[in-house]
Amino acid sequence: MTRADGETIVRARPHPGRPGMVAIATRLAERGSRIHFSRDSGATWVPGRPAGMQVEDIAWIDRADGPAILMATDVGLFEVAADPRADLRPVLVEPSDQDLGFYAVVVSREARGEVSVAVAAREARGVYVSSDAAATFRHVGLKGKDIRTLEIRYEGPNRFLWAGVATPGGDQPGEGCHSWQLLFGGEDPVEGWRAWGTGWHGGSCWAVAFVGDLVLAASHQAGVLRLNTRSTSPTWQASTVDSGLPLRDPGRFFPVDAVVSDLAGVVMASGAQYTLTATVPGVTEPDRRLMAALAAMEVLHAPSEEVLDALDRFVDPLRTPERFVPYLTTWVDLDWLLRPATGEDVTSESLASGVGTLRELVAAAAEFARWRGTARGLLRFLDTVTGIPGFRVEEGVTGDDRVPRPYHLRVVAPPEAEPFKPLIERVIDAQKPAYTTSELVFAAVGPSRGPSRQEQKEERT
């Protein structure tokens, strides 16, 4: 399908976390574009309002009020809610050039919830990255290179931004791709951009896809090139003449505009006049008997595949199902919070402050481990586990004889935290320095305090 009611389809994007939700960007007969939305996997479509710019690429992003689409256009980056009545909202990327156009946009979500957005600027202006869901952007390089496509590759918990380079003229060998690791908190990787150009002779790179250790790239003249990034000497390998891709002349293929893949290693490549289905590692037409067997296996394995397709959700403490949160605590040495004295199995109900607090504790486990045995770490842990601010640690505490007690500390808790006393005592024992003794006291009720974190959430709700 390349047209919709007289409009040319330029990009189609399924929502990565909402089955059945799809968006397509179309180009109108006259100048302008439109976004169409479907909530039933394309069975029916609802057109959005026409916009007076040329859309090059789109990407889904989730907002508090629902999913939205980011649009890379020839006059800037825009956002529109997944509602046909919604208006476009401009997204500022480069303050010194608010009309800077873009060729590509991608969105990725880090395991702890950080949402990154990357855009490739027109006029060879390089790549911009946001680590706060498109609130602010920073330029990260590749200025002077004509970047036409961006994709995110996930390797375990790590995320890598891949950028394909376009080359002027049809006979130039080209550069291939560059990759950039997206780090938490907007930090830049020490190695910066890594070039992947060895063996590349495909001219422009128009699209990138990933299957296992392989990177697949749609090229202007060498078909679909393959790169094994795990190899000791990663080198691009071009399509062979018997791959099924149409040849323009001996040694050169017709341009491949797009390449996509799935977890089973099935690849689709398309150009102006063709679409080819193939399997990895060879870009060849698959055996029909094999495809029939795969189709039967797909039905049998559908329940397991539904879990595997969203596997990252299960190891994300903020998104994992409630029943899986206690298991994640065993990964980060926090299951002592849940294990009753009787030795029963851990459950989320074992934590007095609830499963929401438990999710926050697991997400911040690395920081707690870093500051364990310090006053800072103890106070941060108590604040998180109870949801109540106002704890303090007193050192140099004197006894009844007014003589300072060595290696002894006193934890003063706000009075409203008293219902969590057993939990607080357990945390103090686990987080204080091993050589110290401790005592817990609750401050007397004083002047009115500010609302707790939980109360602030309820008030906003």
Main sheet overview: 5 strands, antiparallel
Termini distance?
44 Å
> Helix count?
9
Provide the CATH top-level class of the largest domain.
Mainly Beta
Overall pLDDT: 84
Q: What's the name of the CATH homologous superfamily of the largest domain?
A: YVTN repeat-like/Quinoprotein amine dehydrogenase
The CATH architecture of the largest domain can be given as 7 Propeller
Q: How would the global form be characterised?
A: elongated
Percentage of residues in strands? 25-35%
CATH topology of the largest domain: Methylamine Dehydrogenase, Chain H
Task: Please provide a written account of the structure.
The two termini are 44 Å apart. The relative contact order is 0.05. 17% of the residues lie in helices and 33% in strands. The chain is built from nine helices and 28 strands. The chain folds into two domains: 290 residues, Methylamine Dehydrogenase, Chain H; 150 residues, no CATH class.
